[in-house]
Structures are given as structure tokens and as C-alpha cells.
Write a structure and sequence with these properties.
With 322 residues, the protein is of the alpha/beta class. It has 18 helices and nine strands.
Length: 322
């Protein structure tokens, strides 16, 4: 049992299949190892061994013609491609787990040990990785953005700033559900541009915009009614999390709200917590830990709302500035 749990051959074979799009390439008619190798630029003999192992674990099947075809299980690779494809941000990041021992012994994220720079610097240097990361975040939030838009009283706010809001998927859902609200996404330039394009396509350009900026620097949008940090703080250690909160407080009015949306420790699962450590040096926090962080910036917890099947919204307001 322990060897089955520790096996690396199966997960890596599945990731190779995802990266090379083997299930899609084989199609319903199937394909030979030689055909797939020619199409993917790989070595047929080596690829055949991977395919044979994937047959053993039920991801592929061999037809009477000797052609390989994806099974029902193999079809699931497409659904999780953002997390499995080693050329995408998520799949690339997962490979940092091979450096987990180094993370445990040194505290340095496995991602940094493997790639020589932090995750954020890596995706900033490679536009395709940045796009795949935004797509991964949208995939993770699919279905939940509507829940978050409906289960929290966003209609109280005239203007919302989604700080680090990717390409604007969550803000689009909020503005669609609350037509009286306006909003902005503050993000690095490529994602801010993608957010503006999203709002244009959704017919929201008159109420929403993407604004280039970093949440580690003074925010370019001040005086909004609410500043939202959705799935942001768990990516960072306490030092950076405090900087991000400080930027929101600096930009806020005395009566503004700061809304943290996170999958709380104990709900997100230990695997996700471990990934945060390995990839970012961050971690999932409890309500108490987030409240303590916020208190250091004069923020007082007003309410706690379950906004999706996985996430909680904590709404803070400024008490007395320190």
C-alpha cells in the first residue's frame, strides 16, 4: 500500500499524457505509438512504454488493431489539464514537489529551488505561463464565482476594487449580479488588459475596467467602497501578506470595507496547504489568523460569510488607524 502511494511512475505518465495531449490526439479511433510519437516529436519506443503503463492503470486501452485509445478515465485528463500539463503554470509548479525535502530543511519554496526564481517572477517573464495561470484560476473558480456574487451583499457598495483579480472573472460575476455596482481590477499589466477585454465582451465596459498595478506597491485606485482580496493572502508569507493588507488600507477611506475571500485552513485540505508551502512559501490560514493579521492594520472583523462551497468571506473595516 505504501509503495502504491509513493509511486511516481503513474502520476508522471499521466502528466506526460496531458502535456502531449495524447488522449485528444488518439481520438475515438485510437492511434499507434508510432503515429503519436511522430505527431508529438517524441521517441516511439519510449512513448510506447508510457502508453503501456497508462493501459495498466486504466487511462488508455489497446484496441484489437494495436492502436491506443483513451478510456473514460483518460478523458478526465482534459478536465484537469491546467493542473497536469507541465507547460502550464499549474503543472509546472507541481514539479516543485520533488524539492520538498529542501523546503522542509531550508524553508525555501521548492519552486524556487527547481526554477531559480519565485513563481511570480517566473510567470511574469513568460507571458504564456501568465495566461495559463489566469486560465487555471478561472477553472478553479468555475461555478464558485456565481455563488460568491450571490451569497455576499455586494450591492451595498457603489465601487469595488478587486485587488489581484486576474482577468476579471469574479468581478464580472459580481457586476452582472449587481447592476448598480461599478468595479475595477488591479492587476499586472497583461492580466489587467485581459480583464478590460473580458469586460468589453461582457458589455460591462461602462462599469468596469482593468487597471495596471501591483498589490505590493501603492494601489492606483483609492477611495473605493470595498477592496477585495480573493485567494490572494494564502499565496504569501506573513511579511508579504502584511504588505498587501497595508496597501489596501492606504487606499481605503475610513469607512471602506476590506473583504478577504479564502479557503480556510481545515477546509481547503492538507494537500493544498502543502502546495502553498512548496510553491509560494504561503499557507492556508484560519479565521483567527487572518483576523490577527488584519488587526495589525487597524482592521476589525465585521462579519463572516460562507460565500461558496469552499470559501469564506471576511469583511473588515477600519477601527482606529495605527
Amino acid at each position: 500500500m505504501i509503495m502504491a502511494m509513493a509511486d511516481l511512475g503513474t502520476p508522471m505518465s499521466i502528466r506526460v499524457a496531458a502535456t502531449l495531449r495524447l488522449v485528444d490526439r488518439a481520438g475515438s479511433a485510437g492511434a499507434t505509438a508510432e503515429e503519436l510519437a511522430a505527431e508529438t516529436g517524441t521517441v516511439a519506443l519510449a512513448l510506447r512504454r508510457v502508453l503501456d503503463h497508462l493501459v495498466t492503470v486504466g487511462v488508455f486501452e489497446v484496441l484489437e488493431s494495436g492502436r491506443y485509445r483513451g478510456t473514460e478515465l483518460g478523458a478526465q485528463i482534459g478536465e484537469f489539464r491546467h493542473l497536469l500539463d507541465m507547460n502550464c503554470a499549474g503543472g509546472r509548479a507541481e514539479l516543485g514537489f520533488v524539492e520538498l525535502l529542501g523546503t522542509v530543511t531550508s524553508g525555501v519554496p521548492g519552486y524556487v529551488q527547481r526554477y531559480g526564481q519565485e513563481f511570480w517572477a517566473d510567470i511574469d517573464a513568460q507571458p504564456e505561463l501568465r495566461r495559463s495561470f489566469d486560465a487555471q484560476m478561472n477553472w478553479r473558480f468555475r461555478g464558485q464565482q456565481a455563488q460568491i456574487a450571490e451569497r455576499f451583499d455586494w450591492g451595498r457598495f457603489a465601487e469595488i476594487v478587486d485587488v489581484g483579480g486576474g482577468d476579471g472573472m469574479l468581478l464580472e460575476a459580481i457586476l452582472t449580479a449587481h447592476p448598480e455596482v461599478r468595479g475595477k481590477v488591479v492587476e499586472l499589466a497583461p492580466s489587467a488588459a485581459a480583464a478590460a477585454e473580458r469586460f468589453e465582451k461582457a458589455g460591462l465596459a461602462d462599469r468596469a475596467e482593468g487597471v495596471p498595478g501591483s498589490f505590493l506597491d501603492p494601489l492606483p485606485t483609492t477611495g473605493a467602497d470595498a477592496y477585495v482580496l480573493s485567494d490572494i493572502l494564502h499565496d504569501w508569507d506573513d511579511e508579504h501578506a502584511n504588505t498587501i493588507l497595508a496597501r489596501c488600507v492606504e487606499a481605503a477611506r475610513p469607512d471602506s470595507a476590506v473583504v478577504l475571500i479564502e479557503a480556510m485552513h481545515g477546509r481547503a485540505g492538507t494537500g493544498m496547504d502543502l502546495f502553498m508551502l512548496m510553491c509560494f512559501g504561503g499557507h492556508e490560514r484560519t479565521v483567527e489568523e487572518l483576523t490577527e493579521l488584519a488587526a495589525g492594520h487597524g482592521l476589525v472583523l465585521n462579519n463572516e460569510t460562507d460565500v461558496s462551497d469552499e470559501r469564506v468571506a471576511l469583511e473588515f473595516q477600519l477601527g482606529q488607524r495605527k
